[in-house]
Amino acid sequence: ALLMSIAPPQFEIVEKVLLDLVSTDTTKQVFYLETVAQQMCTFDSIPVREQLAFTLEYVREPAKMKADYDSLIALYLQADVAQLYQLSIEPFEGSRYDYYLLEKRNRNWAPRLIERMATQKTFVAVGAGHLGGTVGLITLLEQAGFTVTFIGDS
Q1: CA pair distance 18, 39, nearest whole angstrom
Q2: Which region, left, alpha or beta, applies to residue 123 given φ > 0 means left and ψ of -120 to 50 means alpha?
Q3: Helix, strand or coil, per DSSP, at residue 27
Q4: Which of 53, 130, 150, 151 gives 20 to 30 Å between its CA and that of 76?
């Protein structure tokens, strides 16, 4: 599998800080929605040639990568889940890869989240593309009776 997501270096710092906060608090149990092997199998559903094409588009156009990243952050801060979702699936227009990368995984994750959230407070961290859409995690959780609230600056 080829990792398709390329983010600016500062994202890696943010991700590390968040994961360190969660993993160093020994009173918090870390719960993963899927294993690394499962995630890599998801990428195996997309031919390597097409993964390379997606990746090379960003490598060859660093200004586009930065603009997309900036848009992603701005949309997240505005809690614009619909546009976050659109930006996330844009590279896959005309294919069904959004099904493998988002929809199928969301449908697998939702029951696990619902079971866990029914019995304990749960902090959930997923990629922005998993939030929106008709089979996004927010929709699936709301359909199960949960209230989802944005907790950013407002």
Answers
A1: 20
A2: beta
A3: coil
A4: 53
- Report which of 8, 3, 152, 138 is spatially closest to residue 68, judged by C-alpha positions: 8
Contact 136, 81 (CB under 8 A): yes
% of residues, the chain, pLDDT over 70: 80
> Is 132 in contact with 81 (CB distance < 8 Å)?
yes
Rg of the chain over Cα atoms, rounded to whole angstroms, equals 16
The single residue listed with the structure tokens 């990428």 is: 43
Amino acid at 98: D
How far apart CA 24 and CA 44 sit, in angstroms, is 32
User: Does the global pTM surpass 0.70?
Assistant: yes
CA dist 85 to 62, 72, 130, Å? 21, 9, 7
How far apart (Å, rounded) are the C-alpha atoms in residues 55 and 50? 9
Which helix (DSSP H) or strand (DSSP E) does residue 113 occupy? Answer: helix 104-117
User: In this predicted model, what pLDDT tens digit does every residue of 128-146 receive, in sequence order?
Assistant: 889 999 999 999 999 999 9
Token pair recorded at residue 134: 């008709």
